[in-house]
Amino acid sequence: MSHAPPSFDLVILDCDGVLVDSETISCRTLVDILSPFEPSYDLETVMRRYLGRPASAVIEDYERMTGRPASADFTQSWRARLFAAFRSDLQPVEGVRDAVATFGGDYCVASSSDEERIEICLRKTELWDLFESRIFSTTRVKRGKPAPDLFLLAARERGVAPERCLVIEDSVSGVTAAKAAGMTAYGLAAGSHFTVLDQRQALLAAGADRLFESWRELALAPAPH
Questions:
Q1: What is the pLDDT of residue 223?
Q2: pLDDT tens-digit map of 123-163
Q3: d(Cα 176, Cα 185) in Å, to the nearest integer?
Q4: Which stretches of 123-171 are assigned E, i.e. beta strand?
Q5: Total-model pTM
Q6: Which has the least CB within 10 A, 89, 137, 142, 179?
Q7: Count of beta carbons in the 10 Å neighbourhood of residue 142
Q8: How many CB atoms lie within 10 A of CB 82?
């Protein structure tokens, strides 16, 4: 694995766990919601099952557990609890703003979250100005991560060939999607959720080309552009 990354024309960033330290907050909310129906769903189990996956995966499991369709009330209650927690506790991943400033070329967000959640997260962490016109949500594709569709959409709309794209991800599903898209993938283990579920080796096993412990470490590496 080379320590001198090639030049890239587009850097594609995940949001949750890469830009904002949201994964632990999100998964704690899911434990509260799902554990009454599945007592084995502790924080580590929930992280292992849902990190990097779209909300539809949670809905499918809820319907399987309860034997009934997820109501609008369930979805609204879940989102209200989650967004309240974000507005109270969410922080940016340390060093992200300074690191993005080193890219020197095109970049965007490609997230398994919907547009409303992405905007809430980026506004709360004062990152909205960096990404307002550079957001790709999973709601725009039929298949979310680990399928490559979202990354391919981002590359196509930014006018960049997949092999010229670098993806920065914190989840196995995200790295898997990036490699399936024919892109270079860097794993980033900077979020607090890595203290609960250490996925460093899993990211490498999924095909991550390099692994970084922090945004500062990534920024000090040879520039991706």
A1: 54
A2: 999 999 999 999 999 999 999 999 999 999 999 999 999 99
A3: 9
A4: 135-137, 165-169
A5: 0.89
A6: 142
A7: 7
A8: 20
